[in-house]
Write a structure and sequence with these properties.
Layout lengths: L2 H13 L2 E2 H10 L5 H4 L12 H4 L1 H17 L6 E6 L5 H9 L6 H4 E6 L3 H10 L4 E3 L10 E6 L8 E6 L2 E10 L2 E7 L10 H4 L6 E4 L1 H17 L1 E10 L9 E4 L2 E3 L9 E3 L2 E2 H11 L2 E7 H7 L2 H8 L7 H13 L8 E7 L10
């Protein structure tokens, strides 16, 4: 039983059960014991690997997509380049390297990271020392903007609900015989976000909502509407909201019990892209996608880039590049599960790949 487990157990025994959303937020961002404050989480030596850690090609393609949007914006001389949840800074470092040859682009951009973790900020500073840091998206200075969020929305806290005997209940985290686990409670106000189709499901159905995701998608869309620019969201999830339990914990590249060692494993849930899309449209932004990651990356030139890189005579380079390409685009790896959504202000033409 670690320190965060004891903290949560004491809190629940004193104040009663907490929502799954509260549990996730505490496990991930507790100032002393939270996962993103204490763990080395990314890459092959960490608990999971993201697309930028798989291959430099991913960041290169995203960088050129962003540069294309900047050109279509009329090449503004000042633009905020923002990454939400930038991990170790690998993606942004690759974006900056890939766009170095785009005339005037790097003179125009100011790099901003939205990151709450002190530990990760230090890692990001090593990779991208020119960045500025912010706790929240709302802290970003005004002006034209380019935004990228790769595996950011999946870590936002969710609420879960379960249907039993024809009635919906909220799944909460409680103490059962001195151990953390799920219990049931009356539904809180967030249950109103569950769509009617899911509410009509059979007994045993699980519903999930992520208020934070919709709030941030709305904030991004409002910003784009008033200041101009584009946002690219890449994450794993589903095109259309569906019943099901997608809450999961990952440690050392394996799934683990999410209640066993709080703060020692990554907690995530699938992103409902249709809900992000609806939130953006309600604000008045233009939305494109979602497309699968594999189709998007191939459409914007990943195959051609892989072919160029594979011409390197270094032993094993062709095999490595082919393996990276497959990892990013194949249906049985990241190609289908991961989706890509673009949000833009109404003046921009349709983006490539979507």
């Amino acid at each position: 039983m670690n320190a965060l487990y004891e903290h949560l157990l004491k809190r629940i025994n004193t104040d009663g059960p907490i929502s799954l959303s509260d549990y996730m937020a505490t496990c991930l961002m507790h100032p002393q014991h939270g996962y993103y404050q204490t763990e080395r989480v990314f890459g092959r030596e960490g608990d999971f690997i993201t697309a930028p850690e798989v291959s430099q090609m991913f960041g290169e393609m995203i960088g050129l997509w962003l540069a294309d949007r900047w050109i279509n914006m009329g090449r503004p001389t000042s633009v905020n380049l923002i990454e939400l949840g930038p991990g170790r800074g690998t993606l942004m470092a690759d974006i900056l390297r890939a766009t170095a040859a785009v005339h005037d682009f790097q003179d125009a951009i100011d790099v901003h990271f939205v990151e709450a973790s002190t530990q990760l900020r230090a890692k990001q500073a090593e990779a991208v020392p020119c960045a500025s840091w912010h706790d929240r998206f709302s802290d970003i200075p005004t002006g034209p903007v380019l935004i990228v969020a790769n595996e950011f929305f999946d870590a936002l806290p969710i609420h879960q609900y379960e249907k039993l005997d024809g009635q919906w209940h909220e799944r909460v985290v409680c103490a059962v015989k001195g151990r953390l686990g799920f219990g049931l409670a009356p539904c809180g106000p967030q249950f109103a976000m569950v769509n009617d189709e899911i509410k009509a499901g059979s007994d045993g159905s699980i519903a999930e909502v992520c208020p934070a995701a919709l709030s941030i998608a709305g904030d991004i869309s409002d910003y784009l509407k008033h200041h101009g620019g584009a946002a690219l969201i890449i994450d794993y999830g589903y095109r259309k909201s569906a019943a099901g339990d997608t809450f999961q914990a990952m440690k050392s590249h394996s799934y683990v019990d999410p209640f066993l060692e709080p703060g020692m494993a990554d907690l995530t849930a699938h992103v409902a892209f249709d809900q992000l899309k609806s939130a953006a449209k309600e604000i008045g932004a233009k939305v494109y996608g979602p497309a699968t990651q594999g189709m998007f990356l191939m459409a914007i030139g990943l195959g051609a880039r892989a072919q160029v890189l594979s011409q390197d005579d270094t032993p094993g380079s062709q095999e490595r590049i082919l393996s990276e390409l497959k990892r990013l685009t194949s249906n049985d790896q990241m190609g289908t599960l991961f989706k890509v959504l673009a949000i833009q202000n109404a003046d921009l033409p349709a983006p490539p790949g979507l």
